[in-house]
Amino acid sequence: MTFSIHGLAVARGIAIGRAVLMAGRVDVAHYFIDAGQVEAEIARVRDGRNAVIDEIHRLQQTITAMGPKEAPHELGALLDVHLMLLQDEDLVEGVKRWITERLYNAEWALMTQLELLSRQFDEMEDEYLRERKADLEQVAERILRYMKGVASPIPPPSAARRSSPARQQDMLLTDDSVDVPLVLVAHDLSPADMLQFKQSVFAGFVTDVGGKTSHTAIVARSMDIPAVVGTRSGSQLVRQDDWVIIDGDAGVMIVDPSPIILAEYGFKQRQGELERGRLARLRHTPAVTMDGQKIELLANIEMPEDAAAALNAGAVGVGLFRSEFLFMGRNKGDTPGEEEQYQAYKRAIEGMQGLPVTIRTIDVGADKPLDAAMRDDTHLNPALGLRAIRWSLADPAMFLTQLRAILRAAVHGKVSLLVPMLAHASEIRQTVSLVDFARAELDNRGVTYGPVELGAMIEIPAAALTLKTFLKYFDFLSIGTNDLIQYTLAIDRADESVAHLYDPLHPAVLNLVAQTIAECNAQGKGVSVCGEMAGDTTFTRLLLGLGLRSFSMHPAQILAVKQEVLRADVQRLAPWAQQVIAAEDPSALIG
Ligand code: PEP
Ligand code: MG
Which helix (H) or strand (E) holds 536? Predict the structure, then answer.
């Protein structure tokens, strides 16, 4: 039966595929194996299972030797249940099927089967049996742990397995094909999880939690695949392998679509492809308004390798390299050293082939934990806590390492250094002196480094209200509207339950943005917007009218924004923009 699940639209386009449910764990590898490797993968699971069975047998013997006084009876019963589950053919046969028919790697196949069986347990009437789900999870966890120690003989391929809409239509007819597109459905994904999926096989994704500008959504946008977040309990309504449609424009997932709905969305998908093709022709067109104003369209990137997509989209530079992604998905407490960071920045700079690159210093905390262990459940308001520059200033050795790496990389191109989340003059002064100190350290070591322009992000209202201080110390400012909106309106950007109040067009937000642009323009200092507003065509004319000439966004959004720029006449937009920011309800004036 067809039904729809509603959430928030975060990344445009239509994806049609089979659901891959990610039940909690995303740290297992997900990749496709070659047909010739099926037996080896099945053997890995079988060996893992046998090893766990042996382990349980050994434990049972120990318990028997201890006698009933020392080893409670329940422990023996529990081990019996685990053994029974391990020997259950449904588990083993199911895993084999995912490997043989879908060519999933062993871990992925195990997790998929676990999810399927868990749902069956959930539906059981008998409470005792229902509770055995936890045992099943423990058993799978043990097998996984064993398999971790036995590395897969196959490295995960990096090529994304995406199909053209026409190919997808074919596959709907013969959907047992190994080539079926897959859509990831999860309760939650951290930005680090998303990073893992950047080179992955998924054609789209849906999560229960998250807001439009949560970092998970931002990474999805950078992957340029349709995505919906904030479906609340959507993942519980979908079954493993269901056919689903993700409509990233409307923020809807359609489960088990009828043939008529499939045909309709197949058509929409092809229309989208045609539109992309049309926009692609603008790639080499200079971004100049109808009245001759040159507009700078820059790219936001997360990894050095994203530079290729930036160039491909016709970006004239990188306006925001979110360097924190270099620090994520590593072992706890392990941060990249100076040389590793230097090499990464150098790759990004060289990847941009002489175009300018703005590297933002690390911005972790709140919804961007370095690793799962850093997830901040201990503080009531992590978004107001030790985040971004506060984190850097609390650990000067780590910060200096990053500053030295950026300064060294600046030898290879035009580099700017951007500092997030500043609010206090004391933080500004500390930051500036640490940059000087990093230079002095390199001088002492006799290491060469390049010149950098120093910029600050305006993303806390306090910063937007004390621009004089910022402009005294910085060469340029970059407005982080994602956080500026969050902190002005007191709305957690990652919380879907207040997403309806997260309003970029609130007059307070618009006035802070307008003042920042006007003040920088008046003083001849560079200013850009690098939050999601910059890449949303709804706001392009307004920002142009407010005097903005530099926009930084995901590469996938550049051509659509360029199209708006080419149609704009900023002389005429300027008075209209002033009316908009003075209005009680600016959204009524934005067409
Ligand atoms: C912003 O806050 O607008 C921004 C660009 O930074 P981030 O989204 O990484 O917090
Ligand atoms: Mg920010």
Answer: none
